[in-house]
Every structure is written in structure tokens, then in C-alpha cells.
Amino acid sequence: MRFRGDIEGLRAVAVLLVVGEHLHVAGFHGGFVGVDVFFVISGYLITSLLGTEYAENAAKRHGYGSISILHFYLRRARRILPAALAVTLAIVIAAHELLNSLRVQQVQRDALWATFFGSNINFIRQANNYFAEGAATTSPFRHYWSLAVEEQFYFVWPVVFLTIAGLYHGLRIGRKRVTWRIRLGAALTVIGSASLAWSILETQANPTAAYFSTFTRAWELALGALLAVATTTGTNITPRASRFASIAGIGLLALSCLVIDSNSAFPGWIALLPTLGAALLIFAGLTRSPAIPNRILALMPFRFIGRISYSLYLWHWPIIVFAGALYPAASRKPETRAALFIITIAVATISYYAIERPFRRLSFTGKRDAQRRITRTRERRLRYTGEVIGIAACACVLIVTFVVASRYQSKHSGEIPADAIRAAAAVPASEQRVPATHHVRAPRRRLAATYETVLARWSRRVATATKQRTLPKNLRPIQDHLTNVPTPCADYRLAMPEHEQACAWGSPNAAHTAAITGDSHAGMWLRTLEGALDPKQWRLYVYTRSWCGWSGTSEMIAASDRPKNKDCPELQAQTLQRLKRLQPDLIVLSESGVRTSGKMLSVLEAYSALKGRVVVLGHTPEVVPHFETCLQGDSNISSCHGTLSRKDLSDTDLELKAASLVDDPYIDTTPWFCDGITCPAIIDGAVSFTDGSHISAELAPRLVPLLRLSLREAGVGAI
């Protein structure tokens, strides 16, 4: 095989897309398609090597070719294992030194799967969402899933290659002999088509499994392999064909970055955009006169990034994750992201020259590799350049690390931030606690005294929880209590009418109907609401969508540069139409945060026009830190307590005003989780929020009496 500088440059494009997406660089929302580009390149290069070896042996043995599967595995091990194992070891050591015990257990488990190239299977088992926000709580091995897919493909493909190419050597159709390339091409077409069809179906049925599965990704590797089988080192396309393929390839890659984001049904059919783009660019380079895009890819800056792309891919995500864990606020700033990129380039350069290249130059056969002989002169020219870059990289790492550590050291102290304390202290005492239920229609009755008694009893438990410093024995190990999230039917899709009955609770013959709608923060109340309503008297319907509240898109996503539910307005309109048809007796509205009072008011007026009683269930305070980021050990959990900010209180006031203007009851849930301005992480022996935001499965049933009495006080009968 001749060296292709443009393919090395294409690897640079692929890795920069991925790194840009992970650093949340504007315009890189679809940067994860860089992995798909890698798959096509890998399929092409690996199959080209196998095909070259087979053809050379066939020329010596009267058409009977062969490949050394053992040597193939050894070459792959020499190429992949040293850097991968070095990064794995570095992550485990860094986790022990820098992260808490909870994260260390996660890292150790994921490291074991990564070592044996089973990360994709591990994340499928965990139902791990690749697009989940928050690098601070994400596995530093998440990016190893693509290595697992490639290695699983490499393990099987040489055997399949040799079987198809060699076993049917004498196959003929009529008088025409079917060459090994035709046989492999036909097999790859069948395998790739089946994998693509499965990818499209699985993406709709099980997006998480589809994203990580080797079976749904095999067609991307098969596409590159098919291109390698269909061409040889002597293939020379016309300059006109090269220009067309090159421009079309660049166009498809650019289009994929524009139209694909984390909200797309990916991989599915839409993954054809980046994969076909990569295949066309590889095809365009099969000429003596490459087109301008391929010439640009072959320039030295792109080739250098492409050369270190493997190390760059391995190191970039752990660096981002550890930065997010140690400095969660600072890591989101643009200047910090730029520093992280510089650090990543520096570390990847050192890794390439210190780990990757020395192992790649080893020979398992006792002879110098053919590729080593071909590239000896080129490597000699680059030797001094590499040494200079390595020294400069070390200097960059030391300088940037010192600046970042000095500037943000106080952020990792585990204490409550000073600005949060000042904001909380500025809140008047009269605003630190507001009545739990506000309504206009229903006057206070004697029943309210019962609620106040229950609330007072519960408030004493919350106050006691604020003084807790140790992790209760019943919560050890803590991770078992964080994975059980009470959000069944939390991603209701109105395009599937049958889901409406599947996400209904209670007797079908009940005299009353109720509905709850909003984002995942409405879905988390389902178990509590089920306990508050009599199942013989009520039929409860669930209309909740991820990242899409009852009055607008999730506040956190709306404020970011990464939209998660672009069809939210359509889903909200369809939900309202469903409720008009259903005409429930009770409609519970809940969402993660406050948009604007004007927006809430217009939506509330639409819901209040229905015949049922509308109750606004106030947002829960999102001030409790993730256990993964705040837990400093079993001896002290005080750093996991949250502090109410002025915004939390003002959001409550906005919700109350909007509900009052349309004469709807409002239930403030803040006193259920906070004592004054302190919100403990553990209440009544249960984790309050599994992820700092959603109510835990163990706490939800404990809130049933509070919600039941609140609904009664709000005028909801038959409770």
C-alpha cells in the first residue's frame, strides 16, 4: 500500500470533530460523526492491508492466496494496546488521587470492560446515554466504546475474509471465474445492508443500544472495506471524477455537521451522510492528480493531527471529564475549554512519540517491517521535529496546568461557594419559607391543619438531615440508591398512540381521570402521585417528555447551545389536544424550572379552559450537588447539601403569580426538601435527589402524605 497523506488528514478532521463536540465548540453539535468517519477509514485501511497480503501470496502460489491471522492480531495489538492501556492506567491512578470513592468504583468497573474492549457492551448494559449532559458525572472511559466496536470487528473480519476469499477459490458462474474480490464484495454488500437495516430499526426501538452496538455499526466498517476490495493500489480515477467525489465528500461531511445533532435519530439512515462523505474523499484520492480538498487534507498541519489522532482521541475525553469533576463551573467557560484543547494536543503529542511510535516500530518477526523500510527516510526527517514538539508540549502542559490549578484551586475545596452564601444571606427571613399550598378557589378548611401538622413533622426530619455528616449504613453502597430513578414513561412520544394506554395507571373503570404533563421533573412525581390518588377512584395518564416542560423547553437546555428537544412546541400542542379529548378531572403541571411569567400564563389559560381542576406542582430546587462530585468519603457528606439561591425563590414567586392570575392552585414543594435555605442530600434515610435534580425512588413514596393532603386542600375530591 502506498502512503495516503489525505487519509491521514481525514483522520485529523474526524478527531477534531469529536474533540470540538465534546468541548461544546459552536458549530460542532454533530461532531460525534467523526467516529463514523474513523470507522470508514479503519474498514478501508485494514481491508486494504489484508487484500494486499492476500494478493501478494496469491501471485506466488498460482492464485491461492493466504493471510497470517496471527500476525494480523499481533500488528493490531502493537498498534492499539500500548496507548490504550497507558491511558487506562492513567485514568485509574488519577481517579484514586482526585475523585471520591463513588467515582473510583465506577472508574474501576469501566476500566475492566475497557481493558478487554467491551465498553460498548458495558454501556448498553447500563443503558448509558451517550448524549447525557455533564462530563463531571460521565465515565472517563465513555469514548472507549468505539475502540471496542473496531476491535470486535477486527477479531472477526480476518477470519471471514480468509474464508470467503480462499474457500470458494474455484467458484464459477457459467464459464466465468468469480474472483476473490467479487466474492468479498458480494459478502460485504450483504453484511453491510443487513447491518444498516438493523441500525435503522434499532435506532427507533432502542436508541442507546443502537448507538453502541457493533451490529448496528458494522455497515460503516463494511463500507470502507467494500471500497478497499473494489480498488487496488493501481486504481487511478480521472481528475474529473476525483474533483466530483472530493467536493461531494466534503459537502456531505459539512452537511452532516449542520443537520445532525444529539436530538437526531442516530445512527440510523442519517449516518449515511458522514460515512458516504468519508468514502467519497478516500475514493477521490485514488488518482495522480488529487482534487483541491484532498490536497488540503494532505498538508502538514492536518497530517500531524492525523498522525497523533489515536492518542488525541484517547486522551481528550479523560482530560475533559476530570476537568469537569474538579472544576465544574470553570470547565464550562470558553477560556477553560481552549486551555483543555491545548493540554490535550500537548499530552497526545507526548503520548505519540513516547508510547505509540516506539511500539509501532517493534517487529514480531525478527525482521524490519516493510512499512518501516518504506517510511525510514520520512521518519528520520520528522525525528528532530518530534523532539522539538515534545519539549514545547511539556512546557505547555506545565504552564497551563499551573495557571488553571492556581486560578481555580478554591473551587475544589468542597465548601459552599462564597457567592451562594452571600446570595442566600441577602434573602429576607420572610422569604425563606413560603406556604406550601397557594390557591384562590378553595378556601382553607380544617383539613389544612392536618396538612400543617404533617408538614411540621416532615420539616423536623428535614432540619435533622441538614445536621447529618455521615452516610447512613442503610445507604451503603450509595451507588445502588442512585441508579433507581422513578421516571417510568418519562419520554412519552405522542407519535405512538398506543403509549397512552401503556402509560396509564389505575382502574380503567375509575370514576375520575387525572393527567400529569411536563418534562422529566413531572415524570419523577409519578410514583408519589400514584400513592396520593385512590387507584379504585382514579385513572392516571402520563404525558411527559424529556427536556420539554408544560410551558416550554427545559430551562437548562434553552440556555445552552445544545437543543435537546427541537419538537417540544409540537409535542406540547399535541398534549393539549389529547387532554381536550380526554377532559380529565385533574391536570397536574410540573417542570424543572421557570420560563417567563407571560409564557406560563398563556399556557395556564389554555389548560384552565378545560373542565378539570388544574394544579401547578412547583419545581423542585436544583441546588443539591451530584453525589459523584461532592462526596468526599463516608465520613462527611455535608458538602453534598445544597443552598437555595435567590433565583430559586424568585422562580417560586413567578409560578405562584402565574397560577394565581388564572385562579389555579399552586403547590410549593420547596419546604419538602429544604430547611430554610439549606437542602440536605439525604432526608429521612433516603437520598433526596439521585442526580442533584430528580427525586430518588426511595424518597418519592415518603412524600405521598404531603402530596395527598396538598391536593385535598387544593379542592381535589375523591382522594
Provide a descriptive summary of the structure in words.
The chain is mainly alpha-helical and 719 residues long. The chain is built from 29 helices and 13 strands. It has a seven-stranded mixed beta sheet with strand order 3-10-8-7-5-6-4, sandwiched between helices. It has a two-stranded antiparallel ribbon with strand order 1-2. The protein has a two-stranded antiparallel ribbon with strand order 9-11. α25 links the parallel β7 (586-590) and β8. The N and C termini lie far apart (76 Å). The model is unreliable at 382-395, 397-447, 492-499 and 555-563 (pLDDT under 50).
List the helices and strands and how they pair.
Elements: H1 5-22, H2 34-60, H3 69-98, H4 101-115, H5 119-125, H6 144-167, E1 172-173, E2 176-177, H7 180-205, H8 207-212, H9 218-230, H10 239-259, H11 272-284, H12 292-297, H13 300-307, H14 309-326, H15 334-360, H16 370-408, H17 418-425, E3 437-438, H18 446-466, H19 479-482, H20 498-502, E4 504-506, E5 512-518, H21 520-523, H22 526-532, E6 538-544, H23 555-558, H24 568-582, E7 586-590, H25 597-608, E8 613-617, H26 627-630, E9 642-643, H27 646-661, E10 666-667, H28 670-673, E11 678-679, E12 682-683, E13 686-687, H29 704-713
Parallel strand pairs: 5-6, 5-7, 7-8, 8-10
Antiparallel strand pairs: 1-2, 3-10, 4-6, 9-11, 12-13
